[in-house]
Give the backbone structure.
Amino acid sequence: MLTLLSMFYYICLRRRSRSGTRGEALTSRRAVESGQRAVLPVSVVVEQYAMEVLDFSSHYGSENSMSYTMWNLAGIPNVYPSSGDFTQTAVFRAYGKWWEQCASAPLAFRRTPDGFYSQDYIELGFEKPVYPTAVEVFETYYPGAIVQILACSHNPFSQRPPTDVRWEVLWSGKPTKALTPQSRRFSPKIKHINFPTNLLRLEVNSSLLEYYTELDAVILRGVKERPMLALYKMPLIDISDLSDSEDEMPDGGGPFRPGGDGKQQRTANGYFDKLPYELIQLILSHLTLPDLCRLAQTCKLLHQHCCDPLQYTQLSLQPYWAQLSDASLGHLQSRCTLLQRLNLSWTGSRGALTLTGFSSFMKARGLSLVCLELSCCHFLNEPCLEVIAQACPKLQELNLSSCDRLHPRAFTHISKLSLLRRLVLYRTKIEQTAILSILTFCPEIRHLNLGSCVRIEDYDVVASMLATRCRSLCSLDLWRCRNLTDRGLAELVTGCRTLEELDLGWCPTLQSSTGCFQQLARSLPRLRKLFLTANRTVCDSDIEELAAGCPALQHLDILGTRLVSAASLKKLLQSCPRLVLLDVSFCSQVDTRAVQELSSLFPGVAIKKSFTQ
């Protein structure tokens, strides 16, 4: 079976490769045989640090500070060659695999390519466009997260609107885990490209790391003169080349028989079409989207199978963010009549997707959608959200994480999606009126992320509304909310007793002396994840109450508290056998020796204690 598919795939490639001229092919052959690239004489290498951070998917820091934010990557190193946890570095929001194992984590999409590892990204602008010869990244804590470095043809500081934007991968690799958390200068061998660039994109995957990776600076080295790249590149078939025309397609790849004139003749589809339809569908379900599109152009039989709507009930276009356009969505539209889950995260930047193309697709295929991932989609505007609200009445999951360019008024349309169960608004400009309207009309919400939503004026009012309208809430992320008090928290935990995840990290207005954390522990027996990061008032009595009231606890972050002792942590570890992650970094009463003793007594628990040196 795989042999037949391989044969059709080969036929497809041969047909498509004819777009290259004979002269180009001969040039390519000579270049390959010589094993060399013709280049101009060596010119002066320009070395420059990043001038500006242009875009990113997440960061540990807040929106109105510099500590642990991506903006620290601009300019010269702040920390290197020192190693450790420093506030002057760029830190992404998550690390490790535990983040993906939480109840709030979305289901993975099928057909994700094996080589796509990226979880976060950052885009950097440099002063002078150059032809890159090297890229160097200063990693100062737990290195190894970088999995891809890309260059863009567009000058981000140009006044002209972007046209024909191209992205080229300079280097890619698998996620790794460095032997030590010490700092290093990461400079992989990069591919030469045929356009100058002053826009780089770093993509990372921190799933193998034991703690947050920290980046300090990025250097771009390159030359101003264009190298002569003699190697001919065979045209690639991508998801934009999806013609559904069956003209000139062979019927299939079956055996031959002698004809009446003595010549060989093809006999329909041989034995391939004798296979059950469902079996062929199962085989094709293992192909990535570009492979499925290529195979559709080989013969009429496989075209029929590759265009079957059952192959497109789930569609993740995030791995192809650099190629996706309005035309791509238009070509896919006819195949997606049964589409239920769609991932457009990271797509559409710099004019690649427009309101017209997005709206056309959503109006045609939004009726059956239950999940829509739109993280970091900067093409979105208020009319786009209005279309979503009108065209997707069955939508249950909506992710607008880091869509920080959406106008606050746009979020009011979300309240029309009354079946919503999961809503991610991390790093958006949503305001209090909009979130209260959403909670009023969407009582089925189970998972809500309001992390770093700095425009919400009074989180106590939001907490009260959650307790009243969303009593089945399972997870709530209030990371870095600045004004939640003990009164709001008390209402929340009283009304939402099914909470399993609660992130109150960097919420400075919560004080242990009010008894709010002890009431939390007594009210939430199902609690599995609790972040009290950087709350310096958490004390032993809070930890002991958690040990008594939350036996299902798996993840606890109390970074920065000064009042918790190793003795209370030992009680917690004894009472919570499912605990796998405990962050006690910068806890002044829990030194390295205490951490080592606890780790030896409870080897199944990852006890985190960061350092600086």
In short: DSSP finds 15 helices and 23 strands in the chain.
